[in-house]
Backbone:
């Protein structure tokens, strides 16, 4: 048990003792007396602890277990097999501290056409980092190409969604033959 947990437990025990003492004082005091009112007040001091316990139980109930790696995701697909060549322009950031080059390596996103999003990944080659605001031709692999490719025909425009933000815009340059 951590120090904070021990202190919280001690506070809960102390407030419970105060509430029990208030209940005893209220029980033995004459109706309408100041002692009975103080006993009631001491009992009411216990209510915030009960509220905190109920909130903790509700948060624990709502808390979900961490999501396991999706076996149907890109991890199961293994090697990168591009389905399309696209031109992507990453939107510039309004914050200078976030206006950094797009780093090399794998990037995952959703490519959105109209109101439909499709999971995709793309790579920036080693030493091939690029600045936001410049158009880049990149190979893209879709998680479900059979579903996505009918919507990503040549010159189709799309937006790039990462998390809850649209971070880029693009268009399809060409589809690969094996797609």
Residues:
């Amino acid at each position: 048990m951590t120090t904070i947990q021990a202190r919280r437990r001690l506070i809960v025990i102390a407030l419970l003792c105060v509430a029990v003492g208030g209940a005893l004082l209220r029980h033995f005091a004459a109706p309408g007396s100041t002692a009975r009112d103080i006993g009631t007040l001491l009992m009411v001091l216990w209510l915030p602890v009960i509220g905190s316990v109920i909130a903790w139980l509700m948060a624990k109930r709502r808390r979900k277990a961490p999501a396991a790696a999706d076996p149907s995701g890109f991890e199961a697909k293994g090697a990168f097999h591009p389905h399309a060549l696209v031109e992507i322009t990453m939107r510039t950031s309004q914050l200078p501290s976030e206006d950094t080059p797009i780093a090399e390596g794998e990037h995952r996103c959703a490519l959105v056409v109209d109101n439909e999003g499709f999971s995709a990944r793309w790579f920036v080659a080693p030493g091939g980092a690029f600045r936001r605001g410049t158009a880049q031709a990149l190979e893209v692999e879709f998680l479900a190409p059979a579903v996505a490719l009918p919507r990503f025909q040549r010159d189709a425009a799309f937006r790039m969604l990462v998390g809850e933000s649209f971070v880029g815009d693009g268009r399809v340059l060409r589809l690969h033959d094996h797609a």
